[in-house]
Amino acid sequence: MTGSTGRPLASRKNPSTGGKGKEDPLQVFFLSSEVSPVAKTGGLADVSRALPLALAAEGVDVRIGTVAFRGVDALPGFSLRKTFAVQTAEGPHTFRLFEGTLGAGGVPVYALDPGGLFDRPGLYGEGGGEYPDNLLRFSLWNYGLLALPEILGFSPRILHANDWQAALSVPLLPHIQREDLTRRPRTVLSVHNMAYQGVYPLSGWRMTGLPSSYNHFDALEFHGQLSLLKGGIQFADFVTTVSPSYRDEVLSEPEGFGLSGALRHRGNRFVGLLNGIDEEEWNPGTDPHLPVKFTMESLEGKERLKSEMRAAWGLSGSGPLFGVVSRMASQKGLGILARVLLSERNRRKNLGEWVVLGSGDPELEALWRDVAARYPGRVHLKTGFDEKLSHRIMGACDFLFVPSVYEPCGLTQMYAMRYGTLPIVNPTGGLRDTIVPDRTGLWLSALTEEGILEGIVRARDLLSRQKKMREMRLLAMGVDSSWKGRAKDYISLYREALALPPWHLPRR
Ligand code: ADP
């Protein structure tokens, strides 16, 4: 067996028990600030639901630690389980623990509220800005998470932290759980996007609770500030990111966002494991959000869905229907796409019809409002977060445009393939790893206005070649992007982490 990186991983008969079959299941504590449906701003939430479910299906005893954002108590099956106090860097602090489960197997979800600090309209901020007390909020949350195993009586062998929000738990762990090394969990940090690092002024250092020996270039210090993500990268037993190509890209700048040196230092303890998708939630044959369902055997249903949705979206033409489902962020290349549509030079060209769903950067949202105003009846725009519409776009469109400047993995292109909607991508990071050009989608020749225009023209031509189009749709729908095999790569990695000596000893 080889991992997605091509690196050999230990082969196991029963991955969760190391092949012996009789041991207790491997216990993993999976820490993520976003878990669908508790909270979601992007792909992290989807992964933090689907990966634990896939691990549980492999026999891993996985529990999820997340944030009790506003409204958690209204989620079906979630309720307040207990209130407890923990000694933090800020002194004793009271937490409320909400508990619920995910999936048929009932994966436990522990949502922590450190005293109302997350009871706000946004997750990390509002109106494009961050909440000023994020360092405090997330430091306290990490303290609460690390206290949970003892409070609830479970003993994870692996602490799997995701992104900057949970990264502090990695260096903090040995300072909170002071058992001997053999019993302390091994740590894995997964980085879903190097651009988000949790960087704060050193004046907030005290909130982390770490000794000042960590305020150093080879620890959390980052250009005169403190970086939570860097702390996780420096000290986790293994660091992962979400596709093999992105793993290679972030070893250099500018893709490493200043941390390429720290990542290079991790050598083969930094690996790229490709994300998967939840193939039950994203299934055109059963999707409750689709008024017409379809499968590979009944593709004509997709055509019916397309004409129904076209009418509902006020689109009247008959050419290619392009979809976009994306955060509105500069990373996603939506500015250049909008400029192509707005350009005077392209005004008389047939650029197809568009349905665009996105939210985020107010300037990008405004740019797309200009596009929609320019093309009434040809561009349907919705700004905001809309789960149902995201499924309908995947179902109804001919093509999904993903012109990302960089893309750690990307999930939307895999959802699109499952719905026979061909992705048109800039081949970077996970987009390169998941789309086979001219078979399961199209690669843009360049992320320029000319490259995008050429992509639109190629898509239009492809749509007119019905046989080829159908062949590619079926190929795309047949791709196995499920978590099943991919979760096994994580289990092998956990086993490897447990078999190796720890990467670092706590500093005093
Ligand atoms: P990222 O994590 O960078 O945002 P991904 O492609 O990995 O990108 O994941 C994006 C996820 O968020 C997908 O599930 C996508 O469907 C969803 N999504 C993005 N924007 C919206 C939106 N405005 N409304 C509904 N879902 C959205």
Mind explaining what this structure looks like?
- The two termini are 40 Å apart.
- The protein has helices spanning 43-57, 134-152, 163-167, 169-176, 205-208, 228-235, 244-249, 260-265, 300-312, 334-342, 362-374, 387-396, 412-418, 429-434, 449-464, 466-478, 483-499; strands at residues 27-31, 61-67, 79-88, 91-102, 107-113, 125-126, 129-130, 158-162, 186-191, 199-201, 221-222, 225-227, 238-241, 270-272, 321-328, 353-360, 379-383, 399-402, 422-425, 442-443.
- The protein is globular.
- The chain contains 17 helices and 20 strands.
- The protein has a 9-stranded mixed β-sheet with strand order 3-4-5-2-1-8-9-13-14, sandwiched between helices.
- The protein is an alpha/beta fold.
- The protein has 2 domains: 27-276 and 485-499, Rossmann fold, CATH 3.40.50.2000; 300-481, Glycogen Phosphorylase B (Rossmann fold).
- Adenosine-5'-diphosphate (ADP) binds at residues 42-43, 46, 325-327, 357-359, 385-387, 390, 409-412.
- Adenosine-5'-diphosphate is lined by residues 42-43, 46, 325-327, 357-359, 385-387, 390, 409-412.
Brief synopsis:
The chain is 34% helix and 20% strand. By secondary structure, it is an alpha/beta fold. Helix 1 packs across helix 17 (483-499) and helix 2 crosses helix 4 (169-176).
CATH architecture of the largest domain: 3-Layer(aba) Sandwich
**Major sheet summary line:** 9 strands, mixed
Distance between the termini: 40 Å
Our count of helices gives: 17
Strand order of the largest sheet: 3-4-5-2-1-8-9-13-14
Percent range for helical residues? Answer: 25-40%
The domain count comes to 2
Shape: globular
Output the radius of gyration.
23 Å
Give me the CATH fold name of the largest domain.
Answer: Rossmann fold
Tell me which ligands are bound.
adenosine-5'-diphosphate
Unreliable stretches (pLDDT < 50, length at least 5) are 1-21
Q: From the helix content, strand content and strand pairing, which structural class follows?
A: alpha/beta
Count every beta strand, where a strand is a DSSP E run of 2 or more residues: 20
CATH superfamily name of the largest domain? Glycogen Phosphorylase B
The proportion of residues in beta strands is: 15-25%
CATH class (first level) name of the largest domain: Alpha Beta
Mean pLDDT, rounded to whole units? 93
